[in-house]
Design a protein that fits this description.
Strands 1-2-3-4-5-7-6 form a 7-stranded mixed sheet, sandwiched between helices. The chain is of the alpha+beta class. The protein has 8 helices and 7 strands, in the order E-H-H-H-E-E-H-H-H-E-H-E-H-E-E. The chain has helices at 19-28, 44-50, 52-56, 84-102, 119-129, 136-141, 159-173, 188-197; strands at residues 10-13, 60-67, 73-81, 145-150, 178-182, 200-201, 209-213.
Length: 214
């Protein structure tokens, strides 16, 4: 079943073949909702951390927006997991080891070891070699979490709500009644969007972490 507008854009379940597309959207929205292209020489790094694992690992799930008028391009997504700890373990066991081979530690330029890395690239390489674990306060609120990103030209058209509704329905089917997400504290428009949906700050969680009760 798809949620389609008169313009033809629709939502479907994410596939492993969407990996590069969601990674690209992650980059184009990765600087507090704006493009992070200028911060990276290796733009895939942000997606390797925050997008691609959700469509590649069995503990992840996702729904994507597709625009038939743009050769069926993926133009937005909601990605997540119903079990954050299982997702983290799968990423630790099978995802990050492969990425680490492409971007060895200590961080250095993959093509030219004498050329300095951009600070954002160096930061992500360090993170990939030392993946963070979610604080227990968030797991106590819910084992499930989400990420949502939509290309700017498709924003403010109701797609964010549609994507979130799909994700909520999926999590309800897993027997869950809560979910949390994290946002860049600089992204005030994202915070307002989540607040309108009913998300609230989680007491004791890091800044930018918000939770929702279905």
């Amino acid at each position: 079943m798809s949620d389609t507008t008169a313009g033809g854009v629709y939502i479907r379940e994410a596939r492993t073949s969407d990996s590069k597309a969601v990674s690209r959207i992650c980059l184009l929205t990765g600087d507090a909702g704006k493009s992070a292209e200028h911060l990276h020489e290796f733009g895939e790094l942000i997606g390797l951390m925050y997008a691609e694992p959700y469509v590649q690992l069995s503990a992840g799930f996702g729904f994507v927006m597709v625009d038939p008028s743009q050769s069926d391009a993926v133009v937005g997504y909601v990605l997540g997991t119903a079990d954050t700890r299982l997702f983290e373990q799968q990423a630790f066991d099978s995802w990050f080891p492969e990425v680490q081979k492409r971007y060895p530690y200590p961080p250095r330029h993959p093509q030219d070891t004498n050329r300095p890395l951009k600070p954002a690239d160096e930061r992500y390489i360090r993170t990939i070699h030392n993946p963070p674990r979610t604080p227990q306060v968030q797991i106590a609120f819910s084992p499930a979490h989400l990420h949502i990103d939509i290309l700017p030209e498709y924003q403010r058209q109701g797609w964010g709500r549609r994507l979130m509704k799909r994700a909520f329905e999926h999590l309800k089917e897993q027997g869950l009644d809560r979910v949390w997400l994290g946002l860049d504290p600089r992204n005030e428009s994202a915070r307002r969007f989540y607040q309108r949906l009913g998300f609230e700050d989680i007491e004791g969680a890091p800044e930018g972490v918000m939770g929702y009760k279905f």
